[in-house]
Amino acid sequence: MSTKKSKDGKPSVVGKSLADLGDLAKNIKTSVIQLGNLPDLTNLGATVEEQIATCQQISEGVSTAVKFIHDVNTQYASYTGNRTAQKIVLSQTAEATTRSQKYLDQALTLPEPVFCQSASLAYMKAILTGEFASNEQAWAALRELEERKLVVQSKNPHAKIMIGYSHYELAEVFGEDKEDLAEITSVIAQFSRVLKGLVAAQRQKDTEKALQASKITMAEVAQGAIGKCLFHVPKEPYTDRENKIQYHAGGDVLVEVTEDAIIPIVGIGAVDSLIQTVVGMGITIPIYQLKWEAPPGYGPSFSKVQTGVMRTMRADYPNWNDQEIWENSQNYVKKLQAFWYVIMRAIKAHKAEEAVKTAREEYLGKATITAAQLFELDAQNPQKGQTCLEYDGCFKSSKGEVYHLFFLASNDKEENKITIEQLPEHVDGFLGEFVGKSFTMDDCPASLAMVMNAIRGQVELAAELAKQ
C-alpha cells in the first residue's frame, strides 16, 4: 500500500484493505479536527451566580459543538473525489461527532427555560453566522433551525421575521425580551442578506449556463424553430381566497422545443421545484395546446383527462392499487396544468415585450422634438411638436408598478400646454384617462403630475450630466 499526491496537492491513497484506515490517517495533510471542551449539563448550579455562569458555559459549549460539526463537514467536503480520505475523516471524528450531537440535543431541550433559551440563542447564532460557500450550505443551515423548530415558516405576510424570501415566526423559547429579540433579528437579518446574495449568484450562474445551452430565441420559436430555448417566466400576482395578493412563482425554464411538444429540461429560480417535478413525471406540452385558452383538463374536462392518465398508469404501474392510480393521476393532471400555465405566461410575456418594443420604436419615429424641448428646458432652441416621453426604471404609485413607462406627447407653446397623444396598451390602465387631454404643468391631475415631474427630473439630470 502506498500514498501519492494528486494534481491538487491532496494525498491520494492507493490500496485494497480498509483495515488500515487508522494508519492512513497519518498521511492526511490536514490534521483531524479536535473537539473542544463540552461543559457538564448535569450540575446547573443552585445560586443565581452559579446559574449565570452555567448560562455562559452552555452558550460556549453549544458554539463549540456546532463549530466542530461544521469543521468536520468542511474537512470532509475538501476531500471530494478522494473517498478513502473522506472515510478516514469520518472514522477519526465519529465518536466526537456523536458526542456533539447528543450535547446539542440535551442542551436545546433543557427543562429550565433560562438554560434552554441560552442554548437556543447560542445555537442560532453559531448556525447562522458561519461561512457559507454556496446557497445549498445556507439553506441547510436554515433547515437545521426548522428541524429543531427554532423558526417556523409562516403564511402570515405580516410576520416580523423574513429569512430569504419567506416569512417566519420565532419559537416561544426565545421569549419576549426586547434586547434578546433585537440580537436575534439582527443575526437573522444578516444571514438573510447572505442567503439572498448566494441565491442571486447561483441563479446568475444557472442562467448563464442555460443561456449557453439555449440555441434559439423565443422569437424564433414563434416562427416555428426547434431546439433548446430559455423561456423567461415573470412572477404573476393573484388574489387568494382571503383577498390577499400572492404571486405565482417566476424564473426561467430551459426547454427543448420539438415539432410536436415543449419538453422541460431545467428550471431556474422559484419555478425550479415545479420543473423538477414535471421533468420527473415525464410531463410535456403538445405544441397544438399552446393555442388553447385554458389548460388540459380545465373545468369539466378534468375527469376525462384524468381517466386517460389512469389508463396509461395502469399499464405502466401494474402493482399500483386503484387508490394509488387515482391519487397519482390527479396529481399528474394538476402538475400538467401548472406547467401549461408557466409556459403560457412566458409566451404572453414575450409577446408583451415585443409589443412594447414595437410601440416604442413607433413613438420614437413620430418624435419631431426632444423631451427637453417639450419641457422647454432647451432655451436656446425651443420647438413645437411631439416627442416620446419615457421614464427610466420601474415607476411606482398608488395604482401599482409600471415598467417601460412611455407615451407620445405634444406641446402648445402659445397656451403652454402639453397633450397626451398616444399610449401603448400596457400603460393604458395607468394613464389612459388622460389621452387626448391637454394640461399645463401647473394644473395636471396629481397622478399625471407625478409621472410628468418624474420624467422631467430625469431629463434635467441627463442634461446636467451631459454638460460635465
Descriptive labels:
468 residues, alpha+beta, 3 domains, 4-stranded antiparallel beta sheet, extended, disordered N terminus
User: Which parts are unreliable, with pLDDT below 50 for 5 consecutive residues or more?
Assistant: 1-16
CA-atom Rg in angstroms: 31 Å
Secondary-structure content class? alpha+beta
| Number of beta strands | 17
Task: Please tally the helical runs, counting DSSP H or I stretches of 4 or more residues.
Answer: 13
Largest sheet: 4 strands, antiparallel
Mean pLDDT: 85
H/E element sequence: EEHHHHHEEEHHEEEEEHEHHHEEEEEHEH
Shape: extended
Strand content: 15-25%
Gap from first CA to last CA: 73 Å
Whole-number total of structural domains: 3
Set out the fold topology.
Blueprint: E1 2-5, E2 11-14, H1 21-24, H2 48-78, H3 83-107, H4 113-128, H5 135-147, E3 151-154, E4 161-163, E5 166-170, H6 178-213, H7 218-222, E6 227-233, E7 236-239, E8 245-248, E9 251-257, E10 261-269, H8 272-281, E11 285-286, H9 302-316, H10 322-366, H11 371-374, E12 386-391, E13 395-397, E14 400-402, E15 405-412, E16 417-422, H12 425-431, E17 438-439, H13 446-467
Antiparallel strand pairs: 1-2, 3-5, 4-5, 6-9, 7-8, 9-10, 10-11, 12-15, 13-14, 15-16, 16-17
Helix pairs in contact: 2-3, 2-4, 4-6, 8-10, 9-10
